[in-house]
Amino acid sequence: VTLARQVAAKAATLEALREAIEDYDLCPLKQGARNTVFADGNPKARVMLIGEAPGRDEDLQGKPFVGRAGQLLDRMLAAIGLDRGSPDPARAVYIANVLPWRPPVNRDPEPAEIAQMLPFLARHVELVDPDLIVLMGNTACAAALGTRGITRLRGSWTEAFGRPALPTLHPANLLRAPANKRLVWADLLSLRARLEGRA
Ligand code: URA
Fold first, then answer.
1. Boundaries of each Uracil-DNA glycosylase-like domain copy (predicted)?
2. Inter-axis angle of helices 2-10 and 14-22, to 10 degrees?
3. DSSP state for residue 52 in the 8-state scheme
């Protein structure tokens, strides 16, 4: 973690940070991964979304949230007028994960892996400098807030990395439990309201 902190702090740009992560060999997850999955979307976006770790599709393509959960995420974002591909910072989002490498057979990341890569995530947020953060799922909350319990945390604004952050359910959870979509819908409306300065 000490080396990760030093290396991450030295990265002065997102491109430098991406290279620093690609060159970081101390996380065992890297050995089993095909690609380093850094981020997607517009780095000028006002909103930064933080997920967990790449799945199979993300590992193959080297981009976050391109599989089924990602497609659902894109549809939900579109419903509140957001689009990761948008050049307009007010409509765009920027998307990253706690871990840049796929855990074997998609197992949950271990606390030690989260802790090891946290300095990179913290620097990532600093360099993107978003107005608002959305923490998707327990791993994002564990990393950014130091606590799990997403069903209790979701829907209430808190602070992460020194800025307003909204925990919500991970889109993969919604694939397993579609009835939870109404909860995330409420969270998205809360995000929309913040973006419009209504809350
Ligand atoms: N789930 C995540 O948390 N991140 C991805 O990039 C894809 C699925």
1. 38-189
2. 150
3. -
Q: What is the ipTM of this complex?
A: 0.93
Average pLDDT rounded to a whole number, residues 114-141:
98
Question: Which domains, and CATH codes, for the chain?
Answer: 2-195 (3.40.470.10)
> Computed over its alpha carbons, how large is the radius of gyration of the chain?
16
Edge to edge, the sheet with strand 158-160 lists 39-41, 93-97, 47-51, 132-136, 163-168, 158-160
User: Which residues, listed in sequence order, are joined to residue 160 by a DSSP beta bridge?
Assistant: 163
- Place 113 in a pLDDT band, splitting at 50, 70 and 90: very high
**C-alpha span between 121 and 78 (Å, rounded):** 25
Alpha-carbon distance of 88 to 109, in angstroms, equals: 33
Whole-number pLDDT of residue 185: 98
**Average per-residue pLDDT in the chain?**
97
CA 134, 138, 140, 144: dihedral to nearest 10 degrees? Answer: 100
Distance between Cα 53 and ligand 1 center (Å): 5
Q: Are 134 and 49 in contact (CB under 8 A)?
A: yes
Ligand 1 pocket check for 70: Cβ under 6 Å: yes
**Is the CB of 171 inside a 6 Å radius of any atom of ligand 1?**
no
Cα(105) to ligand 1 centroid in Å equals 13
Sign of CA dihedral 122, 198, 88, 77: positive
Find residue 91's DSSP bridge partners: none
